[in-house]
Amino acid sequence: MEPRNLKDLIFSKKDDFVTREIAGETIIVPIRKQAGDLESIYTLNEIGTVIWGMIDGKTKVRQIIEAIHQNYTASPEEAAKDVAEFLQSLKEAGLIQSSK
C-alpha cells in the first residue's frame, strides 16, 4: 500500500480472533486456525498496540499517522511509511479490512 493512497482509508478489525494485552504488548490469536499453530499468533510492540487500538472502523489512516508522528520520534514521512507497512501486514494476515 502506498502511504499517499492510504491516508483517507478507514480500517476495521475482523472479528475472528481474540486479543490480550500483556506487559505493554498486544497478543492477537486468530480463532480461524488451530490454537496450537504458533505462526498464527501475533505480538505487537508498543507502537503496534497504539495503531491496533486506533483501528476502529471510524479513524482515518491519516489520523493514525499523525498520532504516531506526534507521539514518537518519527518524521511525517517515516510515520506514513511505517503505518502503511504495518497495516499491509495486518491486512495480509487477515486481521483487518478496509471499511471505506
Structure description:
The chain is α+β, with helices and mostly antiparallel strands and 100 residues long. It contains 4 helices and 5 strands, in the order αββββαααβ. It has a single domain, classed as Outer Surface Protein A, domain 3 (Alpha-Beta Complex), CATH 3.90.930.60. The strands form 2 sheets. The chain has a 3-stranded antiparallel beta sheet with strand order 2-3-4. A two-stranded antiparallel ribbon has the order 1-5. Helix 3 (61-71) packs across helix 4. The longest helix is centred in the C-terminal third of the chain and has 17 residues, at 76-92. It starts with a helix and ends with a strand.
Itemize the secondary structure elements and their pairings.
Blueprint: H1 3-6, E1 11-13, E2 17-22, E3 25-30, E4 42-44, H2 46-54, H3 61-71, H4 76-92, E5 96-98
Antiparallel strand pairs: 1-5, 2-3, 3-4
Helix pairs in contact: 3-4
Summarize the structure.
The chain is α+β, with helices and mostly antiparallel strands and 100 residues long. The chain is 41% helix and 21% strand. It has helices at 3-6, 46-54, 61-71, 76-92, and strands spanning 11-13, 17-22, 25-30, 42-44, 96-98.
List keywords for this structure.
single chain, 100 residues, Outer Surface Protein A, domain 3, three-stranded antiparallel beta sheet, two-stranded antiparallel sheet, 5 strands, 41% helix, globular
Q: Which structural class best describes the helix and strand composition?
A: alpha+beta
CATH class reads Alpha Beta
Strand arrangement in the largest pleated sheet: 2-3-4
Q: Supply Rg.
A: 13 Å
Assign the CATH topology: Outer Surface Protein A, domain 3
Tally of structural domains: 1
What is the N-to-C succession of helices and strands? HEEEEHHHE
E-strand count: 5
Q: State the low-pLDDT regions, or none.
A: none
Tell me the distance between the termini. Answer: 15 Å
What about the largest sheet?
Answer: 3 strands, antiparallel
Strand content: 15-25%
Helical content, roughly? 40-55%
Number of helices: 4
Chain-averaged pLDDT: 87
* Coarse morphology: globular
